[in-house]
Design a protein that fits this description.
The complex is a heterodimer of chains A (152) and B (165). In chain A, 36% of the residues lie in helices and 21% in strands. Chain A is of the alpha/beta class. Chain A has a six-stranded mixed sheet with strand order 1-6-5-2-3-4, with helices on one face. In chain A, helix 3 runs parallel beside helix 4. The radius of gyration of chain A is 30 Å and the shape is elongated. Chain A starts with 17 loop residues before the first helix and ends with a strand. Chain B folds into two domains: 37 residues; 122 residues, no CATH class. A six-stranded mixed sheet of chain B has the order 1-6-5-2-3-4, covered by helices on one side. Classes of the chains: A alpha/beta (152), B alpha/beta (165). At the A-B interface, helix 1, strand 1 and helix 4 of A face helix 2, helix 3, strand 1, helix 5 and strand 6 of B.
Chain lengths: 152, 165
């Protein structure tokens, strides 16, 4: 900066950033302490319950797949609206054989382009966690469809 | 002469020992921005509520986010709607006396249906219902809750899960 008299004067600024760092450290500590590390998601689900809306839906979507979860940990896959026979998938190591269910549904999805409804029907005593496991596998097999819960 | 040299030398040393904290500030700002971006507060932040104690949500790899919804919580001893008790449960099951016989091999809940029907007009058309259920609950209870909400006029359902990423 030119000063009167032709002499240039150099300003030497020193910003004191120590309090800024203090604030940042406190903010980061607060965020780390108050953050919730459980990431909660929401799964959209349809309800294939008795009622007017369902009757209308059924007429609109003639080809649909029902996946039944049985108490013996087997799946029964029924394809409605076509001549595809029903398929039973037995338990594997006393648990649901999810890989085979996924494989079957993926195959059906490829062979049935007009498929528009996918319903999960579980036995009453099956736990909610197991129903969610099956739902997420069904969703992975046929991502274009919303899984409906049925058996009402 | 000797002492002057020492003083000068000491000053040089003092200047060298200054801590360069600008880079530290840069790093802290980046960490703060990262934390702000990835800050996840789940349902607590979305609906300004906390999950009830003892409720273990099911775990899933899939699941999206949503802004607002009517929360129906399924606990071991009862059903809560937006934090208010709506129906009783015995070990995650509806008592026989509270069940209608209007489903195939199950029924809707008398108390829950009454509670939801009375409050249906408080919520706009298309209100999403979040089922915040314990992973140990049997499917029969989930079915009863869904059917009761459905006949009370709610149609759009979301199941709350803990995302396993």
């Amino acid at each position: 900066m030119k000063m009167r008299g032709g002499k240039s004067r150099k300003f030497d600024f020193h910003l004191n950033i120590v309090p800024i760092i203090d604030c940042l450290t406190i903010l980061i500590t607060f965020m780390l302490a108050s953050g919730v590390y459980l990431s909660i998601g929401l799964l959209p689900v349809g309800v294939a319950a008795p009622g007017e809306s369902l009757k209308e839906q059924t007429n609109l979507h003639p080809i649909k797949i029902d996946v039944e979860m049985k108490l013996d940990h087997s799946f029964l896959i029924k394809v409605k609206g076509t001549s595809v026979p029903e398929k039973r998938i037995a338990a594997s190591a006393d648990y649901w054989n999810m890989p085979e269910m996924v494989q079957t549904l993926t195959g059906l999805n490829q062979s049935l382009p007009k498929l528009e409804q996918l319903t999960l029907i579980a036995s009453k005593e099956i736990s909610y966690q197991q129903v969610i496991d099956a739902m997420q596998n069904m969703k992975k097999s046929i991502p274009k469809l919303e899984v409906q819960l049925g058996g009402f | 002469m000797k002492s002057k040299f020492r003083k000068h030398h000491r000053r040089e040393h003092q200047e060298e020992a200054e801590l360069q904290i600008t880079s530290l500030a840069d790093i802290l700002i980046i960490v703060l921005v990262f934390l702000l971006k990835s800050y996840s507060a789940g349902l607590e932040a979305v609906a300004d509520v906390s999950l009830p104690e003892g409720l273990n949500l099911p775990v899933s790899q899939v699941g999206g986010q949503d802004k607002d919804g009517l929360r129906i919580e399924i606990l071991q001893s009862g059903i809560q709607v937006q934090g208010e008790p709506a129906a009783g449960l015995e070990a995650f099951r509806f008592p026989e006396a509270d069940l209608n016989s209007d489903l195939t091999d199950n029924g809707t809940s008398i108390n829950l249906t009454k509670y939801l029907t009375e409050r249906r007009s408080h919520y706009p058309e298309g209100t999403k219902v979040w089922i915040v259920g314990d992973r140990r609950a049997p499917y029969a209870t989930i079915q009863t809750v869904l059917a009761s909400a459905s006949i009370s006029g709610f149609q759009d359902f979301r199941l709350a899960v803990v995302k396993d990423e």
